[in-house]
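Key result, reporting period 2: structure in, sequence out.
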């Protein structure tokens, strides 16, 4: 009996966490005035954007994956995920630069 109550409590906790984490904010109200890089990245990932694209870049030497988020379809945020768990966040990147980047023959050369 006690085991089933524990499982029920754990299930309720997971449902509550899913509800809280699934709430997305409008990108027009996004404020990246935060105290850490991790907070900025998490805030972007929790926001609903007009354009959200990801690209796997395993063929690159050091860039593993990239994600692009744009509110207006003109400029946006680029997050580069590198080897060893590091990542870089760039803001105000034009959508045209993102498109050229993902179509480049060498992601690393284009980025450099």
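The corresponding designed sequence is given below.
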């Amino acid at each position: 009996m006690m085991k089933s109550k524990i499982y029920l409590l754990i299930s309720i906790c997971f449902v509550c966490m899913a509800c809280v984490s699934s709430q997305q904010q409008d990108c027009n109200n996004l404020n990246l005035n935060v105290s850490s890089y991790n907070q900025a990245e998490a805030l972007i990932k929790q926001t609903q954007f007009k354009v959200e694209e990801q690209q796997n870049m395993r063929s690159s030497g050091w860039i593993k994956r990239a994600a692009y988020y744009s509110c207006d379809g003109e400029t946006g945020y680029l997050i580069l995920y590198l080897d060893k768990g590091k990542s870089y966040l760039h803001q105000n990147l034009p959508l045209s630069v993102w498109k050229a980047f993902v179509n480049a023959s060498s992601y690393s050369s284009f980025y450099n």
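DSSP finds four helices and six strands in the chain. Residues 2-21 form the longest helix (20 residues). This case is discussed further under Risks and Mitigation.
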